[in-house]
Write a structure and sequence with these properties.
Layout lengths: L13 E12 L7 E6 L2 H9 L6 E13 L2 E7 L3
Antiparallel strand pairs: 1-2, 1-3, 3-4
């Protein structure tokens, strides 16, 4: 690895978990933000109700995690 370049999360190994439910606010805009991911649709909708505004999307997708020092960190989701 080049020592002049700072490390980025994408430099770490990744794991893709298929068929999870993502909660994203402001989907498709500049302010898009990935909030949570749940294995069940019911859990995802319960969590989406706790968000303080109505611009929230819940959808089934593959979630991308990066593994940093043995910890899985949510990075995003695979866009269609």
């Amino acid at each position: 690895m080049d020592n002049d370049k700072p490390m980025d999360i994408t430099d770490f190994p990744k794991e893709i978990v298929k068929d999870m439910y993502a909660i994203v606010e402001y989907k498709g805009t500049e302010k898009e933000s990935f909030l949570y991911a749940y294995p069940s649709e019911i859990e995802a909708y319960k969590a989406a109700k706790r968000v303080s505004h109505n611009n929230v999307s819940v959808f089934k997708t593959n979630i991308v995690f990066h593994i940093v020092d043995g910890m899985k960190i949510m990075y995003g989701y695979e866009k269609d």
